[in-house]
Amino acid sequence: MTPQPTPPSPWIERWAHLIAPGGSVLDVAAGSGRHATWLAARGHVITAVDRDAAAMAPLNGIAAVVVADIEAAPWPLAGRRFDAVVVTNYLWRPLLPTLTASLADGGVLLYETFAAGNETVGRPARPDFLLAAGELLGVGAGLRIVAYEDGFLANPERFVQRLAAVREPAGAVARRYPLTPGGPGPGR
User: Fold this and answer.
1) Is this prediction's pTM over 0.85?
2) What are the two backbone dihedrals, phi and then psi, of residue 121, each rounded to the nearest 5 degrees?
3) Is residue 187 part of a domain?
4) What is the 3-class SS of 80-144, one letter each residue?
5) What is the span of the domain harbouring residue 64?
6) What pLDDT is attached to residue 126?
7) Quick one: which H or E segment has residue 36?
8) Which residues of the chain have pLDDT under 70?
9) For residue 87, what are the β-bridge partners?
């Protein structure tokens, strides 16, 4: 029996409609690629970066696979811009400005990771890997924040912060960012 793939985060599923159709997506700390695979199946062009080549092996043929230690080596995608940057269950604070700089005009940042309080229910528990209250909002500085959550999820038990934000082009007319799929598109 073939194991079922891990489903994408409900947060990514909810906000993926903001990504331009066929847009380029960077999946950061992609692991085995649950988001890369899901987004590729929806017509997006995927670049996946992670330090674990074996974990990313299933992504060959689905995504441009970049094996790199993004915490200890130079950023392997310098100068590249993407229509979306997706990050889940990963936090390396020195990389945050690079991630937002990797967004093209109109690009979407979808970020979800562990927050303070998680140490009371499991791992990660070290403050280095937990966002402080409201910290993810600072990552969105200069971006239009479309959605943000900071709280507790029951299944599995964890504390998280989640952000959906868009890099609006300078001088752009206000756009509509539907809160649910199927509404008026982002106008890109």
Assistant:
1) yes
2) -125, -10
3) no
4) CCEEEEEEECCCCHHHHHHHHHCEEEEEEEEEEEEECCHHHCCCCCCHHHCECCCHHHHHCCCCE
5) 10-166
6) 87
7) helix 34-40
8) 1-5, 171-176, 182-188
9) 28, 111
Q: What is the pLDDT of residue 11?
A: 96
Question: 14: helix, coil or strand?
Answer: helix
Return the residue matching tokens 């280095």. 128
11: exposed, middle or buried (C-beta count within 10 Å: 0-12, 13-18, 19+)?
buried
Position 130 in a domain: yes
- In this structure, is the dihedral angle defined by the CA atoms of residues 139, 41, 55 and 77, taken in order, positive or negative? negative
Distance, in Å, from the CA atom of 116 to the CA atom of 71, rounded to the nearest integer, reads 21
Phi-psi region of 48 (alpha: psi -120 to 50; beta: other; left: phi over 0): beta
146 in Cβ contact with 164 (< 8 Å): yes
Between CA 119 and CA 142 the distance in angstroms is: 30
For residue 127, the domain's CATH number is: 3.40.50.150
> pLDDT for 49-95, tens place per residue?
999 999 999 999 999 999 999 999 999 999 999 999 999 999 999 99
Contacts of 53 (CB under 8 A, 6+ apart): 65, 67
Report d(CA 187, CA 11) in Å as an integer.
21
Place of tokens 């936090």: 91
The three-point CA angle 92-12-124 to 5° equals 40
